[in-house]
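I am hoping you can look over what I have pasted underneath with an eye to the fold:
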Amino acid sequence: MLSDIHDIHGIHDPLPIEATMRKLLLTLLILLLPGLAQAAFDHSHAQWDALTKKHVLWLAGGHASQVDYRGFKADRNELKSYLDGLSAVTQSQYDGWKKPEKLAFLINTYNAYTVELILTKYPVKSIKELGSLVTSPWKKRFFSLLGKPRSLDDVEHGMIRAPGVFDEPRIHMAANCASIGCPALRSEAYVAGKLDAQLEDSVVRFLSDRSRNRFNQKNGRLEVSKIYEWYGKDFAARSDSVEAWLAQYADKLADEPKYQQAIRDRKAKLDFLDYDWALNGKDEG
């Protein structure tokens, strides 16, 4: 009888309508969730940007930097929060990004997890202390990325340097190995919108550092970092040779025009300088 009354007044049971609405909302969520997850990642890398601005100091006219690891240790919670955000990114989410977003993500990941590795045993004199007789520190799988256990070598050699993916030799001036011999850790995050300018600036800063790259006027040889020996094929892939790649920066490697021209003409033979593995930390030693 009650149902008859409902029918008389045009009132229907609301339950079927609610069930339909729930199904519609569920369908919308399924469709929107991948996009929402992708939008959730902060491509400005604001947390890492803030930490590096606070704890990385430029030295030697901006050609090198020092890292305040004690400061990073005091802000370990903030660092871990950033690292957790990196590790939360899924493979499908990463696959949907543009190439500069991917490369900025991987460089920042490498640099942030290198700092984290140092902090696990800080204070140390060198990152090499964090290895063992059977495993180098760069081969330790101590974090997760894109759903898999990863090492620093996995990120640099397996992902960034993978043939045909980025083919960008300037990353060797961006990925920082926590050592004095390494190109500077920037006091900012790498971001897609200015990645090319950041990479180029890192190259210029490094090659302008006479303690690590220079033209020797006495013997006419170009003395450069061992990076150019270890990863020579990466640079040669973009030019005819390492010498050809370096020739683009002749004005950074020598002060006098005649020596700059010798570099451009590739007349200067290469010598590779010893690499300083001491920690790039503030007030170390």
